[in-house]
């Protein structure tokens, strides 16, 4: 039991580090994508979204420091998979960047929320607070809807783009889970009632056969969690006039 | 007298629009330059500076709306000169971006402050509030100083860079003054005790000869104001270990 607790503790630090890095990168990406914004008003709106991400980053960063963890070391392990996610989903247009900000950050947020549910109350509250999509839904949905009204062919292209975003998110989430056994164990504990043998060995990270068995379990766990997120993902697509 | 007041009114809107656009662009540039940051901690610090610029932009934007001015129309006339300033001073390294954030925004801020001194009290207060270099000085100065300590040759190169920043700022400020006669008149009123003939004609913007005479006056006015800003500019350079 105390072993489980220690593992959850490392899992919480991992979750906060992952989230802090995710928010910092989302801040930079939103600010960068604003170059694509067609008007000064939409540039400003994207700057608002970016600033909201910065505030989230700052809170998570400060919480890590409060827990006597060097925030940058907690964030560092997640730079490779998150940078890869952004590199593979570079928006080529203003509308793609909007859909990414809403769909990509939306499903990632739901995913983080699921993990947070398994943490202590203070972590839950902090994570929930920093996942608030402050005004994003209305802004993005109305922009995308009116673009589709003008050019209906966009609906199909943007729906495809949304599917690609989810596919890449799933793939990076699996990569994170396989790199961070404590986080995977935390994840797994929400899906299974008892930790599997594979997870326990993965935490040691010694035997190759066990590690790949653990990775298969992580893949299954992550996929199962993503499947659970379908409902709100579909709602976001519908708000924009896109199909699943 | 009432004519002067109306002119000052348009000048104030111009100042707020200029500042709002300057802050929005500074936000985007700081966020973009963070790609150059060597560590996760310095990326985070630059994100903090960028977020502070966003908060300033938001306040100026909301003040324009409060004055029943469409904020984007007030900002729009300044996009060309400010975008030109950034295009001509694209930092090629992390240190150049730091010096730009400190020296460039510093002298621009002093300049805006000088204009604000000539406005109503509420505008003065708002402009002063949004010019606070929250923590920038310490952060930038310490980074630049320690880089120079490691590689003394940097001092000369960065001093040159700082001179170029000021030269480009002066040139863009003159361009702004020549495009916005009301703002130039406001500027001029701080330097001269009575408005010159040239300024009055420039506000009409009808006769070519008068316009170029007014531009010459603007050039002189702007240069004189820049000369007045030397003291704090020199202090910023010294804080970084650079020479004028």
TrEMBL record, chains A, B:
This is Hydroxylase. Residues 10-189 form the Ferritin-like domain. Pfam families: MiaE_2 (PF13794).
